[in-house]
Amino acid sequence: MSDNTTTTNNNKPSTLSSYLESATGAVQNAVGNLTGNTSHQAEGEVRKQKAEAEYDASQAAAKLPGGTVSSTGTFAKDDPNRTTGSWNQTVGAAKETLGGLTGNESLKQSGREQNLEGQQQEAKGQLRDYGHGLSDRAQGAVGSALAGAVRDKEGQERYEELHDQGKTKQRGAEVDIQKQAEANY
């Protein structure tokens, strides 16, 4: 079996190709086990390890103020509700703290309400980004495949950009949702 690269033709990490490469490695390893061919076993193991590394890379995203950069190098701006919600949480927490320190129950309550409103706004923005990200990824993948089938290079590139933008939006929302889940435990 040849040593195929596990990334897409433009060398971007791909979740799908990591799954395919992992399955290929598992099959190659199993064939090696059945035939007693240690070379095939080792090659299969290497393929599976490369697939794991590519999967990890395809999941990578870095949160920046106002957006996300993914492993594809694409920047996606956050939904405005995420930014506004984060700001309202910060201001609300400050009001709540100040109200608690000064004994001003009205300010404390106002801060608590603003903080909760901010949490809801941020969650709404995260869900929008996640949903739009999934939609853009799917549309980009299908469109790219169809454009490739008819040899429309420009169309294929446009759809690949849409896919990458969607992936970045989705990963950015996932990063924030994961952080919030960890903070709540």
From TrEMBL:
Which residues belong to any copy of the CsbD-like domain? Answer: 81-130
List where Basic and acidic residues composition bias occurs: 42-53, 125-135, 150-179
Q: Output compositional bias ranges, type Low complexity.
A: 1-11
Q: Which domain of life is it from?
A: Eukaryota
Q: Which InterPro entries match?
A: CsbD (IPR008462), YjbJ_sf (IPR036629)
Pfam families attached to this UniProt entry: CsbD (PF05532)
* Region entry Disordered, spans: 1-185
Q: Which SUPFAM superfamilies match?
A: Hypothetical protein YjbJ (SSF69047)
Composition bias (Polar residues) maps to 12-41, 82-91
Per the record, the similarity remark reads:
Belongs to the UPF0337 (CsbD) family.
What is the protein's given name? CsbD-like domain-containing protein
Naturally occurring in which organism (per UniProt): Trichoderma longibrachiatum ATCC 18648
